[in-house]
Amino acid sequence: MTGSVGTSPARVGGIGRVTGQQAYVADLDLEDVLHVKLVTVDAARGRIGEIDARAALDVPGVRLVMTAADLPHPIPRFGPQRRDRPVLAVGETKYHGEPVAAVAAETSDAAEEAARLVRVACEELPALHTLAASLADRAPLVQDPSLRPDDPHAGTNVLSEHRYGWGDLDGAMREADVVIDGTYTFPMVTQFAIEPHAFMAAPDGDGIAIWSAIQHPYWLQRVIADLVGLPLAKVRVIAPDPGGAFGGKQHAKYEPLLAFMALKMGRPVRLVLTLEETFQAVRRGAAQVRVRSGFRSDGTLVFREIDADYLIGAYADIADRTVAKGSYTSGGPYRCPATRIVARSVLSHTVPSTAFRGFGNPQQIWAVESSMDEAALQLGIDPLALRLKNLAGPGEVFLPDDRPADGDWAQTVNRAAELIGWGTPVPPGRGRGLAVGLKSGPTTGLSYSTVRLLADGSVVVNAGTSDMGQGARTIFAQIAAQELGAPVEWVRVVMGDTAVVPYDQQTSASRSSVLMGNSVLLACQDIQAKIRAMAARLESVEEGDIEVSRGEVRIGDRVLPIRDILVRGLGRLGGEVIGIGEARKEAEPGHPLGGTAAFYEFNCTAVEVEVDRDTGDIVVARYVTVSDVGKALNPTQVRGQDEGAAIMGLGHTLMEQYIYDVTGRLRNLGAIDYRIPTSMDLPLQMESDIVENDDGPGPYGAKGMSEGALLPVAPAVAAAVRDAVGVVIRDLPLTPERVWRALQEAQVDAP
User: Residues 552, 609: contact at Cβ < 8 Å?
Assistant: First the structure.
């Protein structure tokens, strides 16, 4: 059947994306809308004095200059983990780019001109933008301790500390023949989605409507309802498909501000961030990770100690959850009898960090996989052999009280090694490296869907998932097409409106194919049960003698398309058959993360690089990425997601980083001064492959994917660089300057 699961039909909505026909939030323009521009000060941390808006209000068309004084008191605060983020800065700014006011005007030009005319009395204060500064004795506190009642860390800049561990660490240390001890750093980077962050708000009868390029519409609905004091039913969130998100559009940013402005003015308001403003709104947490790993001389891993500090910025957002989840599995997919992990979320006067593809895991995988490579070097064991020796086998428990290994991960590793030609001679001037990555999937989940089988056999799927480029619409259409016997072109997938589609907890953690996919499958099976009852009535047979599956109705030796029964059963009145699906993964309160992993994402990446010793420039000559996906519902989309994740991983590996000056101002705002990979930086040769054993919890044995291929990029590339030129580098990104300096230092240190 065209579009059935396991094939790669044309992407649903793909033509609109590539032709520009698809309307994103920034493309929408409501009638009578006011345009909003943010007012900021050029300081990371500044004490806010008088805000003089008189000149701004004199600009023709300006209707409002909102400051913290115009908001309820105490200032409304919000956040997915802690309610610590104010709608507008109050008292002092906490990071470079934090808004202190907002202008609303009839035109965007008027709003921009007026924003420049707002005068803010600001006393610049010492700011913290590094881990060392934030953790120093007598460092100024980023957050007032009153925001953190009953928090033992409230008098420090440590927001939270996470501790995990098992086994006899002291005893294991005595067993180790070799101990590898290293500290690794990971940079601040931004998500750099192609679509700008855009927001609108408007009065909606006796409620409010919000338009946002957000991944979690229902989460935003709760935030707005709480802040403005409305019931959920009176808050409508409209979320057109985002044009890329990568975690940066998970949670509320400026939607609360727009809501208060719209309600005050009684008119729609609209804010579209520039790329520079986006840099000051979302980013990934930087990290410093120390790893001590102990091995027997035969390569057996006996203990691991990990101390990780993440620089998360001025407010918690979802960052502390990324620290908790990223550190929980930081020991990797290996059996290790004794482990101690301590991870801290550290506040700073920097842009608040958010979710980012990989959700806290790439930082620690960079460190742990690099440690594995250094161990192989010191032990004189092949890096591939060392990993295979310690890799958890299928069904083996490697994290106490959590999901056992849910795949034959050695298959994935061996496949990547085969594709890169591991063990064959390396061309002159080149080096090879290999690394693995593991990420825990969602620990909780709740997804509802409705599926409507219409009178002509076409289908409408209503699902709350956000399709931000991962291809969720296509997957859900394929499932419905296969189960209900419709061509995939006959399936319409409706998303992005809390007034229309049923509840979905969130679009993150690679959960959509598994949780919402199962929900859609169950809704289709609900329809199949009703078709079975309809067939029993029409054919005068017992329901138990009828089987309905994969678009067909089997009655004895007869096989009929579902559509035949549907048309006869509905008769002249027409109508439709409606199915409801619910997929749920309950929380487990005793678990450190609130629940065990629904599945693991596992990837092995192998690379071959060439390094210019005179300049430090790295050329990725060959690149291989292999992921364990359980079942590829759409193989083309799977490969596309893996290859996209790999290129994104090359960004933080080779070039991407925020650069701050000594005062904490962000200096490389925007595309000119902040480098991301372009076509000139792509690997000269790239191969992606998948391992399918139908062993996942999703539809037809699928697991979530699309983050895994980003996880081990950095350690694989660094290992290849070391293999090529003989230097170990523990700091990212591997810029030409950093590589060149490492080579010069190695020459100086050489006997």
Answer: no
Buried b (16+ CB within 10 A) or exposed e, 272-288: bbebebbbbbbbbbbbb
Degrees to nearest 5, angle at CA 207 with 205 and 213: 110
Residues 6+ apart with CB under 8 A from 592: 162, 164, 324, 328
Geometric angle at alpha carbon 19, from 15 and 22, rounded to 5°: 75
379 in helix, strand or coil? helix
Please check the confidence at residue 1 and state whether its pLDDT lies above 60. no
Element holding 339 (H helix, E strand): strand 339-347
Nearest Cα neighbor of 177 from 331, 341, 303 is 303
By annotation, the residues acting in catalysis are: 707
Domains and CATH numbers, the chain: 25-125+194-244+248-279 (3.90.1170.50), 286-442+591-749 (3.30.365.10), 445-585 (3.30.365.10)
Q: How far apart are CA 196 and CA 253, in angstroms?
A: 13
Mean pLDDT of 172-197: 96
Identify the CA nearest to 360 among candidates 421, 424, 438. Answer: 438
| Cα–Cα distance, 87 to 581 (Å, whole number) | 37
CA 345/CA 130 separation, integer angstroms: 13
325 three-state secondary structure: helix
- pLDDT digit string, tens, across residues 282-320: 999 999 999 999 999 999 999 999 999 999 999 999 999
Q: To which H or E segment does residue 626 belong?
A: strand 618-630
Is residue 295 a contact partner of residue 177, using CB atoms and an 8 Å limit? yes
Cα(178)–Cα(372) distance, integer angstroms: 12
The proportion of the chain whose per-residue pLDDT surpasses 70, expressed as a percent, equals 99
pTM for the predicted model, two decimal places? 0.96
Model confidence at 29, in pLDDT bands (50, 70, 90)? confident
Diameter of the chain measured on Cα atoms: 92
Nearest to 630 by CA among 688, 690, 693: 693
Question: What burial letters (b/e) apply to 376-405, b meaning 16+ CB within 10 Å?
Answer: bbebebbbbebbbbbbbeeeeebbeebbeb
- Residues paired with 577 in a beta bridge: 453
Query: Which three-class secondary structure state does DSSP give residue 46?
Result: strand
Mean pLDDT of 8-22: 89
Q: Give per-residue pLDDT as tens, 82-97.
A: 999 999 999 999 999 9
Per the CB < 8 A criterion, the answer to whether 363 and 287 are in contact is yes
- Find the angle CA(722)-CA(310)-CA(601) to the nearest 5 degrees: 65
pLDDT tens per residue, range 384-417: 999 999 999 999 999 999 999 999 999 999 999 9
Quick one: three-class SS letters along 17-37? HHHCCCCCHHHCCCCCCEEEE
**What is the average per-residue pLDDT within 475-502?**
96
Answer yes or no: are the C-beta atoms of 185 and 738 closer than 8 Å: no
**pLDDT for residue 750:** 59
- CA atoms lying within 13 Å on the CB side of residue 588: 14
